[in-house]
Amino acid sequence: MQSFVYVAQPARVVFGQGSLTRLPQEIEALGAQKALVLSTPEQRASAERVAGMLGSRAAGIFDRAVMHVPIETAREAREVARKLGADCAVAIGGGSTVGLGKAIALDSGLPILAIPTTYAGSEMTPIYGITEAGLKKTGRDLRVLPRTVIYDPELSMGLPVPMSVTSGINAIAHAAEGLYAHDANPVMGLMAREGIAAIGRALPRIRRQAHDAEARSDALYGAWLCGTVLGHVGMALHHKLCHTLGGTFNLPHAETHTIVLPHALAYNAEAAPLAMQHIAQALGTGSAPQGVYDLARDNGAPVALRDIGMKEADLQKICDLALQNQYPNPRPLERLALLQLLHDAWSGVRPRH
Ligand SMILES: NC(=O)c1ccc[n+]([C@@H]2O[C@H](COP(=O)([O-])OP(=O)(O)OC[C@H]3O[C@@H](n4cnc5c(N)ncnc54)[C@H](O)[C@@H]3O)[C@@H](O)[C@H]2O)c1
Questions:
Q1: Mean pLDDT computed over every residue of the chain
Q2: Over 80: is that where the pLDDT of 233 sits?
Q3: Domains, the chain, with CATH or none
Q4: Does pTM surpass 0.90?
Q5: Are strands 58-62 and 112-116 parallel, antiparallel or unpaired?
């Protein structure tokens, strides 16, 4: 067994169908009296439901969460929290809403209770991102790690099937890179394999029947595990590429992860054979890159960057940006091979191995 350092991160997780009904007790357990409820404009109704459940413990609703947490939105939300005298934030939604909660917590130390409705996994990480003047800055700070997470699969029933598939593969990406992380450890390895398997099982069933309660529960369970892996160990080439593609070209987050992952895995395959074996086994296939590609394609997800608005002429720029900073990756970063990876992801070809 390899040597490792394992640091557990504190988070209370309440999981199960109907677990949202536990919200008032969970707020009480946090010792909070006035919760600011956060959502996107699209999920205002969910925020109102949450505020209704909290009754006099709801300080108000801020429903302007958007992708990538613009600094202006973060400032506005911090000001609203301050004016209302909020002593905690309840974020109901996907990574964008949880991200807004983190921006508030970073500034004020307010505890966050997260209620995830996608599979992005932000609720299990101390990683925050704030976008200022077109640049998304990310960092790690334990203050932004939600104190309590309520996972209620019922709330993900309404997540449209295409987004469920791409969001699920976004989660798989965290676990896949966690398996070959430079600071990997056996506990995260177990979680990663179990998380990939749970999501791999769930997505085809969700595609057939969006309201399959068992499949929704499996997917959210997998999202928890994969998010935990993201929060505990360092990510590599795949996340770097997706961060650059999202930040510089504003490509949609979950779709970009879905398209790039098979090719990032193919790039790293020979350098990380055990991780590939574990990913393939978890997906019940013979090849990790092909298994992820097939999971996406067979369930109707996009497989080519050109289909989500990327121009071929910009591949060189992405390659340059990806080579700018060195970071740990199983295989060294080689310009020609990286360009080939990007070109394969752009055209949507199935990985050869
Ligand atoms: N810091 C981290 O650890 C971390 C991890 C993963 C993602 N992220 C960030 O999260 C963002 C992406 O998050 P995301 O992929 O969850 O998307 P999102 O939060 O942007 O949500 C996309 C859209 O789907 C809607 N939605 C969410 N759940 C729904 C549901 N159940 N039913 C119907 N509509 C629903 C949202 O309201 C929104 O309009 C990115 O900015 C990414 O960088 C951060």
A1: 96
A2: yes
A3: 12-156 (3.40.50.1970), 161-347 (1.20.1090.10)
A4: yes
A5: unpaired
